[in-house]
Amino acid sequence: MAILDIQSLTCGYDGKDIVRDVTFQARQGSFLGIIGPNGAGKTTMFRAITGILKPKSGNIFFRDKDISAFSRYEVAKHVSTMPQLLDTPFSFTVFEFVLMGRFPHLRRWEKPKKHDIDIIEESLAITDTRELKDRRINEISGGEKQRVILAQALAQEPELLLLDEPIAHLDIGHQVHILDLIKKLNREKNLTVVMILHDLNMAGEYCDELILMNEGTIYKSGAPYEVLTYENIEKVYKTIVVVKENPISKKPHVVLVSNKS
């Protein structure tokens, strides 16, 4: 069953189409990665899915219902989004910031209950940010803020998690920690994940399915071994690579070939 169904989506800015006639589905419980070079339309497509950007044409369905029929409040009860960059003009504490993830589940002016506080504490714990909860959000590092944003997304208890470069600004240890966590939630809680990634090897390692975008359209989709071929990568990224098999995971591993090699 498709939890997210994109049909013939076209959208862009100032009259210019950035994404053109894109169609795909994310099945319930799937882990879908979206890859492609800068300017391929990945983030623009995410903005349309989340309602920030109005599509020029096409349809976006969540559980067989047009997402435009939902209020932003209703969408937030089921879909959580982690943006690539997030401005935080007000200096909330980390705890207060993560608490905002519970707002869709609370009535107006309702105070969070013990259940809500427990979910916040769990979200902080699993993202390794509990020790930051009394710090101001504007006073922590970019990598710490990335993990806090994920904690807020998880506090919403979503069915569908949309992630735009969730491991940006993180060192390799925290990259693996975050992606291991997301994969665990995907498997154990049947959480559907749609994630934009620039790191092709991370995408191939963690995602069950990949969509390779180029110039606003889908160039190739399928399992990682079908998408991450040297032919596809060289055509889209305009660079020479070698694709080998990871000896442990058996997933495709992309090796860059320098022009000076």
> How widely separated are the two ends?
47 Å
User: What is the assembly state of the chains in this entry?
Assistant: single chain
Unreliable residue stretches: none
- In round numbers, the mean pLDDT is 91
> Globular, elongated, flat, extended or rod-shaped: what is the shape?
globular
Order of helices and strands: EEEHEEHEHHHEHEHEEHHEE
Radius of gyration: 19 Å
CATH-defined fold name? Rossmann fold
Helix percentage = 25-40%
Give the strand tally: 12
What is the CATH first-level class name? Alpha Beta
Structural class: alpha/beta
3D architecture notes:
This protein has 261 residues and is an alpha/beta fold. The chain has a single domain, classed as P-loop containing nucleotide triphosphate hydrolases (Rossmann fold). Helices cover 32% and strands 28% of the residues. The chain has nine helices and twelve strands. The chain has helices at residues 42-49, 72-78, 94-99, 114-126, 142-155, 172-188, 200-206, 224-227, 230-237, and strands at residues 2-13, 16-27, 31-35, 57-62, 65-66, 79-82, 160-164, 192-196, 209-214, 217-222, 241-245, 252-256. The strands form three sheets. A six-stranded mixed β-sheet has the order 6-7-8-3-9-10, with helices on both faces. Strand 4 and strand 5 form a beta hairpin. The mean pLDDT is 91.
